[in-house]
Design goal:
Blueprint: H1 5-41, H2 47-55, H3 58-66, H4 73-79
Helix pairs in contact: 1-3
């Protein structure tokens, strides 16, 4: 009926571990997107865009991923 303190701690640790994995995956995706777009747009891809991608939420990152081969620099700027 009631969770013991040990069960609560275990559940919270597992939740934190899972959240860490999700955030780590998202961070890796952000860095890969930056690398690909940097190669595509070269000198037109500046540090401000890099920083905006690093701060972008998961939904925005997913939109960029879906369109990474066709997105224009202007579309990227509007999205971010």
């Amino acid at each position: 009926m009631f969770d013991t303190l040990e069960e609560i701690v275990k559940r919270d640790r597992e939740k934190a571990k899972l959240e860490g994995k999700v955030e780590g995956k998202l961070e890796g995706e952000r860095e890969l997107i930056i690398e690909i777009l940097n190669q595509r747009f070269e000198e037109d891809f500046d540090k401000r865009l890099e920083e905006k991608i690093r701060k972008a939420n998961e939904e925005t990152i997913n939109q960029i991923k879906k369109n990474i081969l066709s997105i224009t620099l202007e579309e990227l700027k509007k999205l971010l």
